[in-house]
Amino acid sequence: MIKPVDSKTNFFVANIAKKSVKLSVDRNRYKRWIRAAYHNHKSSLTDYTVLIMPRRGMPALKSFAEIDSNLSGLFEGTKRGFK
User: Fold this and answer.
1) Do 56 and 18 touch, CB atoms closer than 8 A?
2) Nearest CA among 14, 7, 11, 4 for reference residue 37
3) Strand 2-4 to strand 48-52: parallel, antiparallel, or no bridges (unpaired)?
4) Do residues 51 and 1 lie in contact, with contact meaning Cβ atoms separated by under 8 Å?
5) Full-prediction pTM beyond 0.85?
6) pLDDT at 83
7) Residue 63 phi/psi, 5° resolution?
8) Helix, strand or coil for residue 65?
9) Who is most buried in 21, 47, 59, 70, counting CB within 10 A?
10) What is the pLDDT of residues 5-33, one digit of tens each?
11) Can you give the pLDDT at residue 2?
C-alpha cells in the first residue's frame, strides 16, 4: 500500500509473514532486499507512506534484482499518480 500524506515525512514498513516465508533467515533477507529497493527509489516517494506486505509468491523471487525491478514499477507509479 502506498498512500499520499500531507507532511514531508516518509514512513516505510516491510512486513513478511511467517506463513508465507518459513525460515527467519529468508524473511530477514527479503526484508533487507525490500529496504534496499526502497532506498534506491526513495527520491520518488517523498510524499508517501509505504507499507509492503508480500504474499506467498515471495519465495519465487531469487535475487535482489528481481525484487528491485518489481518494486520499481510500483514506486514509479507514484510519479504518475494513483486513481
Assistant:
1) no
2) 14
3) antiparallel
4) yes
5) no
6) 47
7) -145, 165
8) helix
9) 21
10) 665 556 778 888 888 888 899 889 988 98
11) 60
Q: What is the residue type of 63?
A: S
Interstrand relation of 11-14 and 48-52 (parallel, antiparallel or unpaired): parallel
Which residues lie closer than 8 Å to 51 by C-beta, 6 or more apart? 1, 2, 3, 12, 13, 15
Cα 48 from Cα 45, distance rounded (Å): 5
DSSP state of 51: E
Specify the amino acid at residue 72: S
In the structure grid, which three cell numbers stand for residue 33, read together?
A: 532486499
Q: Which amino acid is at 41?
A: H
Q: How many residues does the chain have?
A: 83
| DSSP 8-state symbol, 7 | S
More confident residue, 81 or 72: 72
Higher pLDDT, 80 or 46: 46
Q: What's the mean per-residue pLDDT of the chain?
A: 77
